[in-house]
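Chain A, query sequence.
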Amino acid sequence: QVQLVESGGGLVQAGGSLRLSCAASGSIFSVNAMRWYRQAPGKQRELVAAITSGGRTNYADSVKGRFTISRDNAKNTAYLQMDSLKLEDTAVYYCNADVSSLGTDYQQNLWGQGTQVTVSS
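Chain A, predicted structure.
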């Protein structure tokens, strides 16, 4: 089984930075698109950033210019560099990925368990 594990969340003051990591592990044939979502209390889960296997990226308007998604294919890991953090960035951040496993002929969409990011004043 393939698993996604997020790390790097924590408490940071407004204007500060954090880097989140999402590592895929298991019997992996390929990791295709990878995405970061977030969900704040009382709000729907929203797409923050996405990156394709070829490195093409897109971002939610609310984070453009502040967040950067990247990936290291050799490590099956995606990153979300978050700079100039604002109070409204407070949320649980979830990794999501399209993964093909060894021994299968179909793609799975997987979620990590989430990591809390809290921005304080």
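The mean pLDDT is 96. The two ends are 41 Å apart (CA to CA).
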